[in-house]
Design brief:
This protein has 254 residues and is an alpha/beta fold. The chain contains eleven helices and seven strands. It has one domain: Rossmann fold (3-Layer(aba) Sandwich), CATH 3.40.50.150. It has a seven-stranded mixed sheet. α5 links the parallel β1 and β2. It is globular and about 55 Å long. Bound molecules: S-adenosylmethionine (SAM). The site of S-adenosylmethionine has 23 residues, from α1, α5 and β2.
Amino acid sequence: MTIGPKRTLARVFDRVADAYDAGRPTYPDEMYRALTEVSGVDLDGATTVDVGAGTGILTRALRARGSRVIAVDAGAEMLARLLSKGTDGDTAALRADGNALPLTDGVADLVTYAQSWHWLDPVISIAEARRVLRPDGAIVGCWNLAHASQADWLAAYEERLARACPTYWGPALEEWSVPPIAAAFEVVEERWIAWTRLVGIEDFLLDLRSHSYMAALSSEAADELVALQRAELQREFPEGVLSVPMRVYMAVGK
Ligand SMILES: C[S@@+](CC[C@H](N)C(=O)[O-])C[C@H]1O[C@@H](n2cnc3c(N)ncnc32)[C@H](O)[C@@H]1O
């Protein structure tokens, strides 16, 4: 069981909460349409437990679509960013371990893990999700990923990260794959949703700083790597705006 080390690693995000809040992209509208279609759960009026909610990227989007959301995160700084944006009576924020949800059985229509399930215990987390779900509820894992094989500049960017960051985990590694959440489900449907992110170079570099493999570097090494990436991106995109091929991987299961 790896809960201890993973919980320590999870706190890495508290060190980069500002960069995460400012730099990470939202999820495309198509993902929410697919989520409803595949899960059979209408977001409007649903109760969702958003595990590893972080700064609230998914929480806010679900709330905007009419879901009541219970946002759960282990990181105080990440949750503080979520709360700083303001919440209404239909959003609750709990600082808690997603492997031991402080919720009663059968309260949720959806349990979501947006870029977070891989930080939790793969077996205990899903048992917890099943416990808090209503019988016709669904569990959703989703990851918003740069699609490196679609653009040479992006593949080269990822290669530089792989070379510089000892804990890098991403498409530049041959052994990389999406987290195996689908294998944890008895019934599952998977979707890949392609989209394009238009983003300024400085915002893209803020996003870079919010990754756990960057937070694990010394500040000098992180600054050096950001400077290198900035120079390469400015050479490639002198107008200062990147068009980043992205794809969401989503698995919906029971
Ligand atoms: C990559 S962030 C994802 C944030 C957000 N869901 C999003 O889509 O951007 C992962 C989050 O999972 C949280 N986390 C990691 N392990 C956790 C655990 N055992 N219980 C609850 N939250 C956890 C971290 O604190 C972090 O905020």
